[in-house]
Amino acid sequence: MDDDSKGSHLSVVVDLSPLYWARSALPAPENEFPLTLAAFLAQLLAFLNAHVACAHENTLAVFGAFPGKSILLYASSAPIPDGLAPDTNSANAYPPFNAVDAAVVQRITAELDALPEQDEEAPSALVGALAKALCYVNRFTLPPSANSKAQANGFHPGVLPDPRILVLSVSPDLATSYIPVMNAIFSAQKLKATIDVCQIYGPNTVFLQQAAHLTGGSYIFLERRDALLQYLIMSFLPPPAIRRTLSVPTQEQVDFRAACFCHKRIIDIGFVCSVCLSIFCAPLPVCTTCR
């Protein structure tokens, strides 16, 4: 069996920050192409169903990044928890599509309703969701003997063909997440997992640009949010094995700026420790990391 017939694994990391989705839904003149969270979820589910329909062997996992926490919303390798089971009485719904739609929508709705009311919203745990997606891929790349606990929990280990992660972001860069993002990039390179990024709202994200570039993925800044589904289908649906023969959009310029370790600010020019490679915005007589 060749690589193209083994299916493909897709992990989707969804940024579900209520603050930035509320800003994305504002009409003109704030947004030329407003996009509400409900409209986004409808197009996202169509994209997820398209991935499931492409091949029977395709696997899917969806992670949600909420303010201050990240959770697994759906995984095709695990049974759906009680209370999130789809409606099996609908004769017009394809069961795999119905399972994805019910699990993702119900879990997102429950988590958003459970968020506490705060004067200042906590940052979206996008990096935490990305790390969980990498852990999910790593779990299936371990030898069968190391996955006895995973089998007991209902997971079925096996090497995931063409693992890739799609990050759908609406939040800006968080300078304190620079080191965790870099660690995630190195882990993705070791796992040979591709990271794709679609920035739906807000400015370009420096760290996610680097993640896509360094793992061989695609980074797209969405200018026409009313055409989200078209961008998803044309750019992110084909697996890496098929992209070699397609003209997938790539980055013309990549922002390689880093965040300093002292003030956690994104800087244009920095000073690097020759021993531990820590980055500082000003020269220091003694490195505060390794002394």
Describe this structure in words.
This protein has a 6-stranded mixed β-sheet with strand order 3-2-1-4-5-6, sandwiched between helices. Strands 7-8 form a two-stranded antiparallel ribbon. 35% of the residues lie in helices and 15% in strands. With 291 residues, the chain is an alpha/beta fold. A hairpin with a 2-residue loop joins strand 2 and strand 3 (69-75). The chain has helices at 18-24, 37-54, 95-113, 126-141, 148-152, 178-191, 206-214, 228-236, 240-243, and strands at residues 9-15, 59-66, 69-75, 164-169, 194-199, 219-221, 258-259, 266-267, 271-272, 279-280. It is found in: Nucleus. This is General transcription and DNA repair factor IIH subunit TFB4. Pfam families: Tfb4.
- The coarse silhouette is globular
Largest beta-sheet details: 6 strands, mixed
Residues in helix, % = 25-40%
- Structural class designation: alpha/beta
Total DSSP E strands: 10
Give the CA-CA distance, first to last residue: 54 Å
Mean pLDDT: 84
> What's the structural domain tally?
2
Write out the strand line-up for the largest beta sheet, numbering strands in chain order: 3-2-1-4-5-6
Stretches with pLDDT under 50, minimum 5 residues: 150-157
Known CATH architecture of the largest domain:
3-Layer(aba) Sandwich
Number of helices: 9
Could you tell me the CATH topology label of the largest domain. Answer: Rossmann fold
CATH H-level superfamily title of the largest domain: von Willebrand factor, type A domain
Order of helices and strands: EHHEEHHHEHEHEHHEEEE
The top level CATH class name of the largest domain: Alpha Beta
Radius of gyration: 20 Å
Percent of residues in β-strands: 15-25%
Family: Belongs to the TFB4 family.
Keywords: DNA damage, DNA repair, Metal-binding, Nucleus, Transcription, Transcription regulation, Zinc, Zinc-finger
Organism: Mycena maculata
Pfam families: Tfb4
